[in-house]
Amino acid sequence: MLHLVATASSLAALxxxxxxxxxxxxxxxxxxGVNGYSQFYAIYVGVRLATAMLAYLAARQGNQxxxxxxTALFLLAQPAGRLVAAFAIGLPKGVLLAVCxxxxxxxxxxxxxxxxxxxxxx
Length: 122
Prior knowledge:
The protein has 5 helices and no strands. It is mainly α. It has one domain. Helix 1 packs antiparallel against helix 3, helix 3 packs antiparallel against helix 4 and helix 4 packs antiparallel against helix 5.
């Protein structure tokens, strides 16, 4: 599962890197100026690559479940933020709702498949 998360996060970052305007549009964003693009790249490329590298490292270091826990927290933080936004403006629609479902499923799956032992143990 960690390899799948690493691959999906890497591919999402690559897609954002190659066609930022198309990905931004699918996410309901309109990129304006240097700051808009900078913020987009920070989140959709930088954070996605960090998540991918963390998932890959967690998969290699099977005896350190904390790395998998951190990967799950990275994934679950996004639907958690969208849940907060849902109270203010409503649930996401279209592609973003599907992305949210995948993030939620992947994060919960990582926690469910976690090696047995102490929760959040090093």
